[in-house]
Structures are given as structure tokens and as C-alpha cells.
Amino acid sequence: MPTSLSKEHRKHLEKTTADARILAESACRAALENLAVHEKEYRSHMSVEQRLLRNRLRARGRALGDKRDERSGNQEIRHLIELAAYEHWHRLLFTRFLTENHLLITDEANGSVPVTLEECEELAPELGARDGQDLACRFASLTLPGVFRRDDPVLDLPIAINDQVELRKLLAALPSEAFLADDALGWTYQFWQAQRKDEVNRSGKKIGAHEISPVTQLFTEDYMVEFLLHNTLGAWWAGKLGSIKAATDEEARAKAALPARDDVSAISWTYLRFVKVAGASSSGFKSPVLEAPATTPDWNTLAIRKGDNLPHWSCNHAIYHVSFRLSDSIPISKREEWLKEREDILANARRQGRTLSEPEQKRLQYLYSEKIETYLDSGQGECWLARAEIAAIVENALKYFDGQRYRLHAYCVMPNHVHVIVEPANGNVLEAIIHSWKSFTANVANKILKRTGQFWQHEPYDHIIRNEREYCFQLQYVWDNPDKAGITARRMVAGKVAGASSSGFKSP
Known about the structure:
Largest sheet: 6 strands, antiparallel
Low-confidence stretches: 278-292, 500-508
Shape: globular
Radius of gyration: 28 Å
Helix content: 40-55%
Strand content: 5-15%
Number of strands: 8
Distance between the termini: 53 Å
Number of helices: 17
Oligomer: single chain
């Protein structure tokens, strides 16, 4: 049964990892400067071995991106410090993971048996190791050579004894439970990058090659991975079965389930989502007669970027349903209430070491879609988009690059939020397209309204439309949204534009 870190242990691991990075980087900086790695020449008192290690470290630093000043001969060591700190701390951490799980095995000459760190300390002098940690890494390299490499010069960097002691104290203070949970390593890597990620985001500078890692190296929890698999591989399998006639999602999942076979457990596609093929609506708009989308998503290029509260999926040849709302449309108290309710559901499932039940999945979906939509449709906030001149600014911005940067399939400008179905084109990225819409309209609208400050809520919602049936369903949803809310709104679907109620609209 998979196990997850408790909230208490996760907070402990987060703080320890943050402290360890600060300490490890300080220790590695001191060690590198002591070897004069940043200086043009080695120091006269240095031994031959120290000089050779210095040269190897300088070469390693240049390979990482540390620049050498051609005039002075001095060299940066920023990237080298980050790598050295990472390697030294994570070797300690990973060794503890192995020992706690009885996976640290001696070499064949010593019986290939599990060994503890204490036993490594005792064996170290006999086997010619510097200390127990050095011997443990030697044993671990036989099982995991990619993690416990023996050829990287940063691993030969002599860290001061007092710094080594402090790092090992941090490690020893972590409880055994932190090393037995299935998701512990994933959280560790995210926590290691947390401070650097905040620094990059606060700087406001363009993200380059060296900033991508801390900003995007985020842990993906089990349920998110399963959701991805179930709605790609599972959706493909359900499509192979053809039309599935079922009254509920649960019944549809049961019909698409894979039975156990050849010692492989059954797969129930717990997170697979289905859509109903829409028929005639009150507007007279019949979605099945629409032209199918010209492209289908290339799932081989699928990437996931974790935002502040939501994951954002993207891939080539995708059509997206995007929603973004005004900054005051949902009070902070309401958002916090829903986020806490969501976190409580996830935390409860993690504590019990299980995936979410069907009612819990529906509850989460309700919290992040129907509940928010219902609240927005009730007309919360100042509803600046209800003013004709503001709505026109948004509508014109959406249409401005249609046919150049993207293909606009549908949109709806509600009083406090906007729905758009859009297909990026010519190498343009959805994130940049949305940013362009929001930035331009916010500036112009604020001038007209004679106000300053945030106009749009920071993070949009975006969803990849998976197939033709869902495409029709989403178009239907966008067109019907004003009718369901009982209001007049600017909208367009399949090339047909309306500025009032859709009661007279006929599908193309």
C-alpha cells in the first residue's frame, strides 16, 4: 500500500532541506575559495593533488556555465557552488534513504549483505575508506552508479569537518518516517529548489536556461500522475472501445476497465473523465453538426507546468478551453475556504495511503469547476466587463491576432470572467497568448475606469480538449453560459457572433 508523508513530517522535511541548502552552499563556497578555484593562479602552498583537483573543478565550473574573465583570469563559481552543495547533501540524504529501507548492500567481497551507517563506520578503516559515509557511498555506487558517481570532481571537494558535522546533524534530526514514505524523495527535490524559485520569480527577469530548473522542478503528486495517465492512455483505450453508453461516469469507467490478466492487476481508470454528447439546447444550437477540429493533440509532446494553485498542461496541436476572471470576482476568504476543503480531502487520502474515492473526486471537481463557475455567474465583484466599452475591449483583443497567432474557435465575455476556446498557431505558446490578452486589456480598462492595481486574477484555468466529442461539448458550454446565468453577453462560436440572448441562434 503506497504511503505519503504526513503534514507534520512534510513540514519538517521542507525546513530541513531549506536549512541544508543554505549550509551546504556556504560550506562549498568556503571549500572552493580555499582551493582558489575562483582565482587565476593556484597558491604556492598547495600540494600537487590540490592543484590537480582545482584544475578539474575549474573545468567542471566552465562546463556548468561559470564564466572566466579573459583579462584577469578569475572565474565565477556560482554554478559550481550550487552543484557541489546539491551533490554533497543529496548523497547524505540518499544514503539514509537506502539504510532506512535496508537497501544499502555491501560489495561481493564483503558478502553482499545489508549494512547500516554505523557498521560502515566500523568497516571504513579496514577497507581503506575516509569514513563511514565514504564507504557507504562506495557500496551504494554499485547499485545506483548514476546517483553515487565516483568521477565528478565536486565529490572530492574537501568540506570542512565542522560543516560536515552540521549537515549530518540536520540529516539525523529527520525521523525515520520521512524516509519510508513513497513521496518523500519527490518532495525533497522540490523543497531544495524552493528558495531559488522564489528568487527567480521575484526578480521579474526573463527566465533563461539556468533559471528553468528551479522554476519548473516541482514534485507531481501521485493523483496528478494517475490523472494524466488515465486521461491519456485510459482515454485512448476508452476510444478504442467505441461509444460507451452509460448513465454516469462511474458506470462508464466500469465498462472501460481492464480486467486482471497474466498476473497484472486490474486497472479501473479511477480518474478518467467522460463527456456526454450534447444534443439540442434551449438556444437551438446543436453541437453534433459542428465541423470537427482540424487537429488532434500530440500527446507525445505533453508537458505539465505547476502554477500557484493549478497544474497547466500543454502539447503541440492542442485546442484549449481557457477561463480567466477579474481580480475581485472571488474574495480571498472564499478561495481560502475552497483551498482548505480541497487540501483536507487530499491530506485525508494521503494519511490513509489510498487514492481518492469516487465521491471525493467529484467533490474536488466541484470545488475547482462547478462551484467556482456558479459563484462567478452570480455576479460577484465590480463586474467591470458588464460595461459595454470594457467588454468590447476584451472582445477586440481576443479577435486581434485570430488567424495569425492562434485560431479563435469560441469566446464568451461574462460580467466578471471570460471563456475562450483557442488553438495556438505558428509556434505561439498558450501562456504567452493569455498574457498578451490580459496585459493589454488590463492597461486599457484601468485607464477608462480611472483606477490602478490588479485587473485580472493572476492564474487562469486552461484545459486541453481531448477529442471531437469534448470539442462539441465545450463549444456548447461557452455558448450557453450567458443563458444559464440569465444575462446578455458578447460571445462567438463557430464563426457566429451574438451580443444578446442566443434564443434566435441557429447552428452553422
